[in-house]
Amino acid sequence: MDRDEHYMSLAIQMARETVGQTSPNPSVAALVVKDNQVVGMGVHVKAGEPHAEVHALAMAGEKAEGADIYVTLEPCSHYGKTPPCAKAVIDAGIKRAVVASHDPNPKVAGRGIEWMRSAGLEVVENVLAEEADELNRTFFHYIQHKEPYVRLKMAMSLDGKIATAAGESKWITGEAARLDGHTYRHQSDAILVGVNTVLADDPSLTTRIEGGGRHPIRVVLDSQLRTPPSAKIIQNEETPTWIFVGQKVEADKKEAFSQYPHVSIIEQPYDRIEASDVLTYLGEQNVTTLLIEGGGTVADAFVRAGKVHEVITYMAPKLIGGEGALTPVSGKGIAHLADVDAYQVVSTDKVGEDVKIVSIKKG
């Protein structure tokens, strides 16, 4: 590993710690290096707050003059909630900028690099680009498609069952796997389930990880508005609950939720709720990442729509059997193999007694 890769690796490690908390912005870190010493460092902590370059330059102070800056993502070149970072880098007297990822945001898209080069800085591009791109896969997807990156989380037995034939489902996987799954809630803007999951399990759909964690927006697909006001997602006010309903739901049923300010009833102009329309709406609300946790019919709708980009599978070393036992993806299914999306397994890990498999959609 050469010098540039060494410092960029450190920056990527810093940025990785913020994944999930900067939405709808990307996770970014920056290092200012002078005379082979780190004199400034910073990460973007939250949308609307100063970017990583600003923190790093502030820490470096006068030492930024003639120094190198390592940035995991191309510095921005537009005025938003904060001034452009490319200008801050130039004004600080940085002589050399090393960049990992290019920003696909049309407001940036190479202009940050152009600004710095035009000001006389030496700019080195694509240093550890693959590792840096992985940090912001969800952000890049959102920028390019205007709808959230979708993860489907499943917990099942070796024979693909999520419950017994009698309906028992707690718990197939162990506690370690369940806690690991909460990390994905923390990293997601929203979590989605169908109304049957609400009725069967009465989940809170909040995040429970060490130190707290960020709660995602709770999204429920409920065409007939069968969610009871007594449900935990209604009574618990820690995070918003958005319920998608069909056009024929009676006004009095919707009115029953008006006393809960954190609950929104989102009426669709038809009886059936379509996965693509839900994603379009969520994208318009700046939801960049969506975690689907249940149930099988809901998962099937997003799979058939070709909208599942990543699958997180927790597999318990158990055999359940039963022709009527539920599977994680049910519904209509896909009739022809030629229409089935292909996924690439990117990691397999042991989590407690269970196995965790992460797969990403190809193409």
Biggest beta sheet attributes: 9 strands, mixed
* Number of DSSP E strands: 14
Tell the overall outline.
Answer: elongated
Low-pLDDT regions: none
Q: Give me the strand/helix succession.
A: HEEHEHEHEHHEHEHEHEHEHEHEEE
Task: Round the Cα radius of gyration to an integer and report it.
Answer: 23 Å
Task: Explain this structure.
By secondary structure, the protein is an alpha/beta fold. The protein has 12 helices and 14 strands. The strands form 2 sheets. It has a 9-stranded mixed sheet, sandwiched between helices. Helix 3 runs parallel beside helix 4. The chain is elongated. It starts with a helix and ends with a strand. The relative contact order is 0.12.
Could you give the topology of this structure?
Elements: H1 3-16, E1 29-34, E2 37-43, H2 52-60, E3 68-73, H3 85-91, E4 96-101, H4 111-118, E5 122-124, H5 129-135, H6 137-145, E6 149-157, H7 175-186, E7 190-194, H8 195-201, E8 217-221, H9 232-235, E9 241-245, H10 251-255, E10 263-267, H11 275-284, E11 289-294, H12 296-304, E12 310-316, E13 343-351, E14 354-361
Parallel strand pairs: 3-4, 4-5, 6-11, 6-12, 7-8, 7-11, 8-9, 9-10
Antiparallel strand pairs: 1-2, 1-3, 12-14, 13-14
Helix pairs in contact: 3-4
